[in-house]
Amino acid sequence: MKDKIREIEKSAVEEIALAADADMLEKARVKYLGRKGLITELFKNMGGVSSSERAEVGRLINSLKVTASKAFDDKASAISGGRDLKCQKVDITLPGIAREIGHLHPISRTIEEICGVFISLGFKVVEGPEIENEHYNFEALNIPLEHPSRDAFDTFYLADKWLLRSHTSPVQARFMEKNNPPFAIVIPGKVYRPDATDASHSFMFHQVEGLVVSDNIRFSDLKGALTLFARQMFGETTKMRFRPSFFPFTEPSAEVDISCILCSGESRSAGHDSRRCSLCGGKGWIEILGAGMVNPKVFKNVGYDPEKVTGFAFGMGVERIAILKYGITDIRMFFENDIRFLRQF
Ligand code: DAH
């Protein structure tokens, strides 16, 4: 039995060494280690070995099996150049696996676009807290406690005089208290109002605020900056219209419209209802933001001398800009996170 084991070991080692390719090696493997292979047979013949020799013979066959298996493995990796051939199979005609790449939410993207236009004009981006106090949200901006315009900005109250800011304007006051003119800043961020949610209202939305203060800022500077902004956002042919309005923190104040981006004002002359533009309703104009010259009272509140500095400010709703730019019909789509909607941007 021991001779037979030695004989099989010798011939196995020889055959493995002689195997020139994977096929020959596989044949040799089956011959020795296969289910009916010579080494497997040795185990089966253990029954005929005397009990005194059985332990030793068992050990010899086991060690033969280990040696042969290792020799086969070594040879197999030598033949495949040290690599597993199965892993090497590359079918270059198969279509590739497209990786899903994430991208910015349409609101983040619109904020970046809006700020980008002002950054190109030399503005800096500044941020402020979403949890604000009554002083900055109202009083510093010349909205006294009993002022009726406070209703429109009223919001979610937390403890004491803290609340979720109803606009980004409080950051104007916060910034001016800590910095001296001249400066030009844009302030993007979330704002909150207790509005019932519908297609055009959300209790949380985003604004971008602008503030420029120096020693000789005029209304024409405001017009110039906003006209450039509107052209960059909505196209070179966009026209602007400034309508007199009221905000406690600006004087004079204006509401700013752009020529309708859908009908360019064409449908204004259309007498018949069915030809009226669905976006502007035939008015030819759509409102995009509020603006004005900073009220001297606001300058006083933050410790500036209104005789020495002037400035302009503006504030716009980001969702509104995105809705107009991308033709979206419902503000809720921005916040539902339906991937079919988000994928389109
Ligand atoms: N804070 C105003 C709002 O939320 C928007 C606004 C209007 C901001 C005029 C301004 C401005 O800075 O000058 O409705």
Description of the structure:
The protein is about 40% helix and about 20% strand. The protein has 14 helices and 9 strands. β6 (about 240-245) and β7 (about 250-260) form a beta hairpin. The radius of gyration is 39 Å and the shape is elongated. 3,4-dihydroxyphenylalanine (DAH) binds near residues 247, 250, 292, 314 and 315. 3,4-dihydroxyphenylalanine binds next to β8 and β9.
Write the layout of secondary structure elements.
Layout: H1 2-18, H2 22-33, H3 38-44, H4 51-79, H5 85-88, H6 106-120, E1 124-125, E2 131-133, H7 134-137, H8 149-153, E3 162-164, H9 170-178, E4 183-192, E5 204-214, H10 219-234, E6 240-247, E7 250-259, E8 285-294, H11 296-301, E9 310-317, H12 318-326, H13 333-336, H14 339-342
Parallel strand pairs: 1-4
Antiparallel strand pairs: 2-3, 4-5, 5-9, 6-7, 7-8, 8-9
Bound molecules: 3,4-dihydroxyphenylalanine.
Distance between the termini: 78 Å
How is the biggest beta sheet arranged?
Answer: 7 strands, mixed
The neighbouring-strand order within the major sheet is 1-4-5-9-8-7-6
Counting H and I runs of at least 4 residues, what is the number of helices? 14
Helix and strand content put the structural class at alpha+beta
Helicity range: 40-55%
Beta-strand percent range: 15-25%
What series of H and E elements makes up the topology? HHHHHHEEHHEHEEHEEEHEHHH
Instruction: Tally the beta strands.
Output: 9
Mean residue pLDDT:
90
How large is the radius of gyration? 39 Å
Quaternary structure of the protein: single chain
Cα shape: elongated
Q: Low-confidence parts lasting 5 or more residues at pLDDT below 50? A: none
Enumerate the distinct ligands: 3,4-dihydroxyphenylalanine
